[in-house]
Specification:
Chain A: It holds the Pfam family Oxidored_q6. Chain A: InterPro entries: Complex_I_20kDa-like (IPR052375), NADH_UbQ_OxRdtase-like_20kDa (IPR006137). The complex is a heterotetramer. By secondary structure, chain A is of the alpha/beta class. Chain A has a domain of about 120 residues: 3-Layer(aba) Sandwich (Rossmann fold). In chain A, about 25% of the residues lie in helices and about 15% in strands. The termini of chain A are far apart. Chain B is mostly helical. The longest helix of chain B has 30 residues. Chain B is globular. Chain D has one domain. Chain D is globular, with a radius of gyration of 19 Å. Classes of the chains: A alpha/beta, B mainly alpha, C alpha+beta, D mainly alpha. Chains B and D meet through α13, α14, α15, β5 and α17 of B and β1, α3, α4, α5 and α6 of D. β6 of chain B pairs parallel with β1 of chain D.
Chain lengths: ~200, ~575, ~375, ~325
């Protein structure tokens, strides 16, 4: 049977509401200081950008179930209906790469928001940085940023890209998507906000 | 009569050039302008052959102008001018002998170029052998015509035998399939300097076609000879353009493109000879002149542009370029790729149109030939576009330059613009096919193809030339100019170290057409048998030489240079005789 | 007995280690030449067609590949030589997609060194982790291959399944990539694994539909052939060698109990690797459905204060091994044999003589993760 | 004359403005078959609108050709939209500027310009794609020309409008030469517009054919090139519909021309549904197999030419 018919029979699987969040990819709540935090994310309250969600602080801190962790410092409303992402892996472990890929899965379907991936920074509106900025990729990162036409955004995906996490240094970004790795709903939510929605 | 003085003047220039070459070149360009005027006069009397003189004049004008800034070699100027002298003699000739003399004088520089390059022994002697063979064929053809009419003057002949002989004679000189394997054109042009290559490639074809057309006009039509020439022409187009596409030599690519164009021209001559009906053969004749003009002008420009390139292999050459030469070469290559509204585009259109009209007119099993010819030529055009994009990309666009030379590139640009504008003027070559409509194209602008009183198709090149820039301007007005910022080429986050090579550009076709090109993938590269018939030809030429040894042991047996000296002396004598007579 | 690869200063065999450099693999040797007409086409490190950052130098004279070099661009420093708890955090994040395999192999090595015997349930739990990880990773590989063929409907169906598997993992282990799940002799586990039946049914239909497509098969067949008796993972199994750490690695006897059977194919090309992965997903699903995992809390005791050990498990792309030397609570020395280091070699030697457009199919079929190659232990 | 000008304007605007919509509809439906809600059908417009407002990056030392040739490319397609029956079934103003073959040569002109401008970016990845595009050029161009001539040889004029009237007659419509030419042209259309099984635009650079031509472009020229490729797909597709597949249903007159825009929309929905089935069921051919695919198209069109002339004997 042809894939056309199979596809039609399967129906549309895109989810209107976000379902089934992995608990350790949501913001943490708790109180007090926790000295054993490997990335010092709990020095002054909970720092989402530094947290690697390692559960060491559990049960002092526990996941709240709120996946909307992204924060945006610059919005570009021009991208409201058309937003092309160029992912660049500057030194990730690979899980951010897969999670980013999964925002295109039928469940989340980024394309319904007009979000797409592209294979050249020239067509891109945003550079999605994943992983720590390793020495080997520093040059490529700079080139990719330079290759993009204005207006453009830099999105730091995951704690490595934001703060360096366990491994090193992060990058300066307009949009921050915390998580280790961030789940697809977190990513989509932050992207939508970067476009001036919500 | 004036024109004869002009020839003597050219002869004098050839002598002057030994000492003062720049002056000779400058005067030669003036001389060429006179020739254009001569051609216009001829054409205004509805003589299609006048077109050859006009085009020849333009070719010599631009190449001699270019030579003023280009010539660095000692013996170049005299041979360059001698070659032009030969062409002039051929173009104004009224007898077979004059024509032949002119033709041989014209080729002297080619012999010279090859004789000097003694490293390539076997191609050189093959070239010689085929050159001689071709001359013999033309000579026999003329002899037969003379026997039929009893006159040495070009006159109507009664059988098509002379035409057959002359056609094959010229086909060899034009490097037509299967003789393209003699590779004489590619080799001759490959080793010649740019300005010499320009006139050799552009006008040698011009003169051969001139001779052929002249004989065709004077001969009775014959459908089978016509169809045969069409078929041969089609294969030349295909193989010429394919070999041009996979060629790595700056001039070799262009030389094979000449083979391709010669094939297309031969196909249109074939169509003219096959004479489907009066209207269509008139259209075909005009197509011949149009195609020759398109090829000669654009090829001149392209060969001149090779004067901006240092080195022989396209991949490793260096280039002088600036906006002028880039735009110029783009225009020239677009004409060579058969794109409207350039001269080459109109020519391609006319050729394909006439071929398919022929198929419709014949309306029999024979239609299969023009259909296949049309299809093969269309494929050839596809390869030609690829070859031309290779040339323009890897000599101008894709390459960074090491400097510029405005004077030379201005000439290249001028030829390019001429080729673009001449596309619209080319409809004057079809005086009885010009019409107009009430749908936006007024009378005088529409070139309609016809095989009877009603139109088959039509184009208005001037309107294309005008409308595309007009719409472009409109789009710029509507959308505005882009805001720009310069940045590095995006190469996946890395600096570009090795650039894509022109060899690699055409390697797909080497791999795809493995059987046709007999590609061998070796451990460290790719080898193709560009010369499928080369070995066979080599054998033929060897046995021909053995045969000719019996007749002319005197010169064929000895060194090539002696043969050359003989040729030069023999034909200088002929020139003097001809001019004096 | 088979050779696996270089593990630090040892050569690792399936039954032992030997000090020194491993003998060269004859099948992976390639002549180093550069063609006269050729040049180096640089692809990557940052490209749309690559999931990770990796530079690929393709020596070519146009479309045809005469040599391949794979250059890891992202090289991370991993501070594993610290207290065990912290080093586990690092090891988890060496390769997110193989996180369970890495962590389990690492922990197994430590356990061996310190003489810890984890309870049976923990071992079963670890197998559940690794099999779920294998399913997800095989699905990712298949999705990448299918996507490269422009086969859009099955590509999205596979993405759908990947997300579904991720959700299953998250529900049972609290994290989609098993971060923070494993510890010495322990396992964090929330709830029983459910909804695998649905995945099984959907998967079967998708998989059959993909390998029914002639055009798709044609793209993979005879692409990137590699027949290496001493190969690892799907690469070896696609060439009919039953090389699998589930038969001879650390958890072999439990796999045996579960009735695990090795999947092989006999072509050794990209299609063979695709089939092996495809059928292994089914085998893993079968194994998982026969396991009933319960949430239990464990406390393990160590017998030694120092020691060294080797943990070897079958990651989705082949044998993965850690050698760990541990003293008290501190890791002294760590060596890693990552399957991708072998797969990169296998890939580069199998890619020669193919053409550029075959590249994505062959590359993806190896399931290489550069993140586990580009690490330096500190 | 006034009415012809109006009809021309309707035809050109009807092609120019609606061309992106058909791509949008196809993408939306493809997405839906892939179990997704998918993007809006207006996504191509959104993309173009955004790109027009973005900056353009000039790769180092590229110049005027890189920047301005896209305008010429789009202008060429606009000119073509005057000359072939893509909305209105009768010749309109400026239609005589080129005949059907001339139209084919104009398509080649646009392709040439696109290639040249892409090469000016001096990117290796672009050169890789261009080398592929060019290696199929001989078959593509030959098929385009021979298929257009199938029209000429069945009617005795090189005029698509005559053909579209000619095939209204069922016996001509079902004639073998017409059927073969239609199939051949459909295959060519799949190739020219980068559809499966020949090509699909994915993220992989090493698989790019036509996508490479816009790889280095950004901002306005990219928007214009995108629009150009939408328009090209529309023009060739409408010829396929009006001259080969579905010559029926078009109205004449000024009012008729406006209705024709709607009729074309319906015809396109049919073409889109055929393409949808292909695009969602097939995978991409191996690179060198594309050659075989095109060779089949060429041979079919040549056979069609044979039948159309020899059929009279």
């Amino acid at each position: 049977m042809s894939w056309f018919l199979k596809g039609i029979r399967k129906g549309i699987k895109t989810e209107k509401e976000v379902k089934e969040i992995a608990p350790w990819a949501t913001s943490l709540i708790g109180n007090g200081k926790f000295d054993d935090c490997p990335t010092k994310a709990l020095d002054n309250g909970w720092n989402s950008g530094k947290c690697i969600f390692c559960r060491k602080c559990y049960p002092n801190y526990s996941p709240s179930g709120d996946y909307r962790m992204g924060s945006v410092t610059r919005r570009v409303p021009l991208f409201k209906r058309s937003f092309y992402l160029y992912p660049i892996d500057t030194g990730s472990c690979g899980s951010c790469n897969v999670e980013l890929k999964l925002i295109s899965s039928p469940q989340y379907d980024m394309t319904r928001f007009g979000i797409f991936f592209t294979n050249t920074p020239r067509h891109a509106d945003a550079l999605v940085v994943m992983g720590v900025l390793t020495d080997g990729m520093e040059d490529a990162f700079r080139r990719a940023f330079d290759a993009m036409p204005n207006p453009k955004l830099v999105i730091a995906l995951g704690s490595c890209a934001i703060s360096g996490g366990l491994f090193g240094k992060g990058v300066k970004a307009d949009v921050i998507i915390p998580g280790c790795p961030p789940s697809p709903p977190t990513i989509i939510d932050a992207i939508l906000r970067a476009r001036g929605e919500k | 009569m004036i024109i004869e003085y002009l020839i003597i003047f050219t002869l004098v220039l050839a002598l002057i050039s030994v000492k003062w070459k720049r002056i000779a070149y400058a005067l030669l360009s003036l001389d060429s302008l006179f020739f254009i005027w001569f051609g216009i006069n001829q054409f205004s009397l509805l003589n299609y052959l006048g077109v050859f003189s006009i085009v020849g004049g333009f070719v010599w004008f631009f190449s001699s102008l270019f030579s003023i800034f280009y010539d660095h070699e000692k013996w170049l100027a005299p041979s360059f001018i001698t070659s032009i002298l030969g062409m002039q003699i051929a173009l104004i000739s009224s007898t077979y002998l004059q024509f032949l003399a002119g033709y041989e004088i014209m080729t002297i520089p080619a012999y010279f170029a090859i004789g000097v390059n003694r490293l390539m022994k076997s191609p050189a002697f093959t070239f010689m052998a085929f050159g001689e063979f071709s001359t013999v064929l033309v000579l026999v053809g003329f002899l037969d015509a003379y026997l039929q009419t009893g006159s040495l003057y070009f006159q109507h002949v009664f059988t098509y035998l002379p035409l057959v002989l002359v056609s094959f004679g010229f086909m060899i000189k034009m490097g037509i399939f299967p003789f393209l394997v003699t590779e004489w054109l590619p080799i001759a042009h490959g080793s010649a300097p740019s300005n010499l290559s320009a006139i050799l490639s552009a006008s040698m074809t011009l003169i051969a076609v001139y001779g052929l057309t002249r004989m065709a006009i004077l001969s009775p039509s014959d459908i089978f000879l016509g169809l045969l020439l069409m078929a041969i022409g089609a294969f030349s187009t295909l193989f010429g353009s394919l070999y041009s596409y996979v060629n790595e030599h700056v001039k070799g690519l262009l030389a094979f493109s000449t083979v391709e164009n010669d094939g297309a021209i031969l196909a249109s001559i074939g169509l003219y000879i096959s004479y489907p009906n009066h209207v269509l053969s008139l259209f075909a004749l005009a197509t011949v002149t149009l195609f020759v003009s398109a090829h000669s002008l654009a090829k001149t420009g392209l060969f001149l542009s090779t004067g901006l390139i240092q080195g022989e292999s396209i991949s490793s050459s260096n280039t002088l370029k600036d906006t002028f030469s880039v735009v110029g070469v783009v225009l020239l290559t677009s004409s060579m790729s058969g794109l409207l509204p350039t001269l080459g585009g109109v020519a391609t259109w006319a050729l394909l149109e006439s071929l398919f009209m022929d198929a419709f007119v014949l309306h029999s099993v024979l239609s299969i030939i023009p259909i296949l010819v049309g299809t093969i030529i269309a494929m050839g055009e596809g390869f030609a576009t690829a070859a031309m994009i290779k040339y323009v990309s890897f000599t101008q666009i894709f390459k960074t330059s090491y400097g510029k030379d405005i004077r030379k590139s201005a000439i290249v640009l001028t030829v390019g613009v001429l080729v673009l504008i001449a596309g619209s003027l080319s409809i004057f070559l079809f005086p009885s096919f010009i019409s107009g409509t009430n749908l936006g194209v007024p009378p005088g602008f529409l070139l309609s193809s016809r095989f009877s009183s009603s139109a088959f198709g039509g184009i208005a090149p001037f309107f294309i030339l005008f409308l595309i820039p007009f719409f472009s301007l409109l789009l710029i007005l509507v959308f505005g100019k882009p805001k720009t910022r310069t940045a590095e080429v995006w190469n996946n986050g890395r600096e570009i170290k090795d650039k894509y090579t022109s060899f690699a550009y055409s390697n797909n076709i080497r791999l795809m057409l493995r059987k046709l090109l007999r590609t061998k993938v070796l451990i460290n590269g790719v080898e193709i048998a560009e010369d499928i018939f080369w070995i066979a030809m080599l054998k033929i030429s060897r046995s021909y030489i053995k045969f000719s040894k019996l007749i002319a042991t005197a010169y064929m047996n000895s060194d090539l240079r002696i043969y050359m000296v003989y040729m030069i002396i023999a034909f200088i004598v002929v020139v003097l005789l001809v001019v004096v007579i | 007995m088979r050779m696996i690869g270089q593990l630090g200063e040892f050569c690792l065999y399936s039954d032992r280690i030997e000090k020194g450099i491993c003998p060269e693999r004859e099948t992976l040797k390639k002549e180093n030449y550069r063609s006269i007409q050729g040049f180096t086409f640089a692809y990557g490190p940052s490209a749309g067609g690559l999931l990770e950052s990796v530079g690929i130098d393709l020596d070519t004279f146009g479309e045809y590949i005469s040599d391949v070099k794979v250059i890891p661009y992202k090289i991370r420093k991993v501070r594993v030589k610290s207290i065990i708890d912290n080093s586990i955090l690092y090891v988890e994040r060496i390769n997110g997609s193989f996180s369970a395999s890495h962590t389990i192999s690492f922990i197994t090595a430590i356990e061996e060194g310190l003489g810890i015997e984890p309870p049976y349930e923990v071992k079963i739990g670890r197998i559940v982790e690794m099999e779920l990880e294998r399913i997800r990773n095989h699905l990712i590989v298949m999705q990448r291959v299918v996507e490269a063929a422009g086969f859009s409907v099955p590509s999205f169906q596979l993405l759908y399944l990947i997300e579904k598997v991720n959700r299953v993992i998250a529900k049972s282990f609290g994290h989609r990539y098993f971060y923070g799940v494993n510890g010495l002799g322990s396992l964090r586990f929330y709830e029983e694994i459910k909804s695998l039946e649905e995945i099984k049914k959907e998967y079967k239909e998708i998989y059959r539909g993909i390998i029914d497509n002639r055009i798709f098969i044609d793209r993979l067949q005879s692409n990137g052939v590699i027949v290496d008796k001493e190969g690892i993972g799907p690469v070896a199994r696609s060439a009919s060698f039953k090389n699998d750490a589930r038969n001879d690695g650390n958890y072999a006897e439990i796999y045996k109990e579960l009735g695990f059977s090795t999947v092989t194919y006999d072509e050794g090309d990209a299609f063979g690797r695709f089939i092996v992965r495809g059928e292994e997903v089914e085998e893993s699903l079968r194994i998982l459905s026969s396991i009933n995992l319960h949430s239990v809390e464990y406390e393990s005791k160590k017998r030694n204060n120092e020691g060294e050990g080797i943990g070897r498990v079958e990651s989705p792309s082949g044998d993965l091994a850690y050698y760990v030397k541990v003293n008290e609570n501190i890791i002294k020395e760590v060596y890693l044999f990552a399957p991708s280091s072998y797969n990169i070699l296998a890939f580069s030697s199998s890619m020669v003589k193919n053409i550029f457009t075959d590249f994505p199919f062959n590359w993806e079929s190896f399931g290489i993760w550069l993140s586990e190659v580009g690490v330096i232990f500190e | 004359m006034i009415s012809q000008i109006v009809e021309a304007i309707v035809q050109v605007l009807g092609s120019f403005l609606l061309a992106p919509l058909y791509v949008g509809i196809l993408d939306k439906l493809k997405g839906m078959v892939s179990s997704r809600k998918a993007q809006s059908v207006f996504q191509p417009y959104y993309d173009i609108f955004k790109l027009l407002r973005k900056e353009t990056i000039l790769p180092n030392s590229s110049g005027l050709i890189f920047l301005y040739t896209p305008y010429f490319v789009l202008a060429t397609y606009i000119l073509i939209s005057f000359v072939i029956p893509v909305v209105y079934p009768e010749p309109v103003f400026f239609t005589p500027v080129v005949d059907f073959l001339g139209g084919a040569l104009l398509f080649s002109l646009a392709a040439f310009l696109k290639t040249i401008e892409a090469m000016e970016s001096k990117s290796n990845l672009v050169a890789l794609g261009v080398s592929r595009v060019m290696s199929f050029n001989f078959l593509g161009e030959a098929t385009l020309i021979t298929v257009f001539f199938a029209v000429a040889l069945s009617t005795g004029t090189n005029n698509p409008y005559v053909e579209s009237h000619f095939v209204l007659n069922p016996s001509n419509y079902l004639a073998l030469d017409h059927v073969l030419a239609s199939v051949s042209f459909f295959m060519l259309w799949l190739f020219e517009t980068g559809k499966l099984p020949v090509e699909s635009s994915g993220l992989n650079e090493l698989g790019m054919i036509d996508d490479s031509l816009t790889y280095e472009y950004s901002g306005k020229p990219l928007a214009i090139l995108k629009w150009g490729s939408y328009l090209k797909a529309y023009l060739l597709g409408s010829v396929l519909l009006n001259v080969f597949f579905l010559p029926w249903g078009l109205f004449t007159g000024v009012l008729g021309s406006i209705i024709d825009v709607g009729v074309m929309f319906l015809k396109w929905l049919l073409l889109i549904s055929i393409v949808l089935i292909l695009e969602t069921s097939l995978a991409k051919f191996r690179l060198f197999k594309v050659q075989d695919f095109l060779a089949v198209a060429l041979v079919l069109s040549v056979i069609s030419l044979f039948f159309s002339v020899v059929g009279y004997v």
